[in-house]
Design brief:
The structure is a homodimer of 256-residue chains. Chain A is an alpha+beta fold and 256 residues long. The first copy, chain A, has 7 helices and 10 strands. Chain A folds into 2 domains: 64 residues, Orthogonal Bundle (Arc Repressor Mutant, subunit A); 149 residues, Chorismate lyase-like (Chorismate lyase), CATH 3.40.1410. Chains A and B meet through strand 7, strand 8 and strand 10 of A and strand 7, strand 8 and strand 10 of B.
Chain lengths: 256, 256
DNA sequence: CAGTGGTCTAGACCACCAA
DNA sequence: TGGTGGTCTAGACCACTGC
């Protein structure tokens, strides 16, 4: 057990030879809070209970809760606001929109994107799409194909695949009529919150179809960006394949 | 002053109307440690003084030093090793090599890179290179052009510009004979430690020269990666323009 | 075994916010 | 004014490393 006089009644992981498996208290607290987030006890944008309340609830000191929340904040799952409280992170906050979009204009401020849905239909997952989304092939998926234009210049063409079950009822009309980031729409309409993503980038030549939609000649070099976005617990919830024009934009990345 | 009975004799920033400028103690400690790192009091790979020692030196509690070091560790400036101490981060650690290279093979493990220096000469900075490196145009710079090949396939062609003053005495021979990451070489030979970097990525068509060096046809789509690498204090110390073949590799990025 | 970083607690006070 | 997160301290004990 841990070092306090009133030992918290949390699990002390049993050590085995292979996995010593010592898990600090604050990690266990983090997991518990994560489960509450996952289970929807507090929804995106909500205030969470204060550190004092959580400390009382979990029978640990405030400092331990604090460290757990620190990590959740570092993972962008939660946002702290001094004097107000801790809030569940959301993709619908103003001025932090398009958190996962790394494409930036070479000069000047970004215009608002003009969005056009090219296609939206339900289909069966191909073997590859199924594998990347953690589905069986032939499981239902939704495919959304859209174009984003900036200042009238079509710049991004992307195919978005979503698992059919959690996104049951997604229609082109709802998508088209929605303003704001797609991930905010997913939060409010389907309760699906994207937490992190991985991207693989290649340089590719524009196909005839892509060239037509993006207004370039076939063969024009484009950035091919494959993104897998995950919800809580590293469950993949979206596969997105984008083609980016980079004549006026670039993909920005910070390394450290 | 701060809340302890023995107030630490550190600066309490004066608040002005425009900038309230309250700076927590641990931030001041972080800055002081940063200055020691910058000044070379401890060199890459060295053990730093223990938290207790630093706490005594700065007249604060261990917890405050701890929080300062936590941030330095989060910035990858320092590495903690339980039971051993805190070490100044370095690019020459085995198995963490090429920390800033995001190119990965599509399948399998990466081979060791075969490196060929195509060119290495001193010149005067063009206006653009000077601007990006924070130099005046016509200031001396070193240009290194090299090719990296994996499993015999030339994959990366890059131009590296370095400010001439700190890199005085850099020769093609020294570069060629060195094994290991270039940034480790910079640390040991010139005392220059790259701390973070920014990259801007575009898709470009291979020029005739690039095509010849990379073994592709002219016009072949390549990833154009412009990197600016910084030392301590956000001072730019390297401009690197790379062309990456992405037929067998991809640029990997994690978003959160 | 001693020394290091890592965890946990308890209590105090500060900065910020809203009512 | 009271509540929230943010800072700081002091002290205890744990886990890991190396002598």
């Amino acid at each position: 057990m841990n070092q306090n006089t009133q030992p918290p009644d949390l699990v002390e992981p049993v050590g085995t030879a292979a996995t010593p498996a010592f898990s600090p208290l604050y990690q266990q607290i983090k997991t518990l809070i994560l489960q509450s987030l996952q289970g929807g006890e507090w929804k995106p944008g909500d205030v969470m209970p204060s550190e004092q309340d959580l400390a009382a609830r979990f029978r640990v000191s405030q400092g331990t809760v604090r460290k757990a929340i620190d990590e959740l904040a570092a993972d962008n799952l939660v946002v702290r606001r001094q004097g107000k409280g801790t809030f569940v992170a959301t993709h619908s906050e103003r001025h932090i929109q398009y958190r996962f979009l790394r494409l930036q204009p070479d000069a000047g401020q970004e215009d608002r994107a003009e969005r056009t849905i090219v296609e939206c239909r339900r289909m069966r997952a191909t073997a590859e799409v199924g594998r990347l989304l953690g589905l069986r092939s032939a499981d239902p998926v939704v495919l959304v194909k859209r174009v984003l234009a900036f200042a009238g210049v079509p710049t991004i063409l992307e195919d978005v695949w979503l698992p059919g079950i959690p996104f049951k009822g997604l229609t082109q009309e709802a998508l088209s009529s929605d303003q704001g980031p797609m991930y905010a729409f997913f939060e409010s309409e389907f309760g699906v919150r994207m937490v992190r993503a991985e991207e693989k980038i290649k340089a590719v030549a524009a196909s005839a179809e892509a060239a037509a939609l993006l207004g370039v000649e076939p063969g024009h070099p484009l950035l091919g960006v494959e993104r897998i976005a995950y919800t809580y617990n590293d469950v993949p919830m979206e596969l997105r394949r984008g083609l980016y024009r980079t004549d006026m934009h670039h993909y920005k990345n910070e390394l450290s």
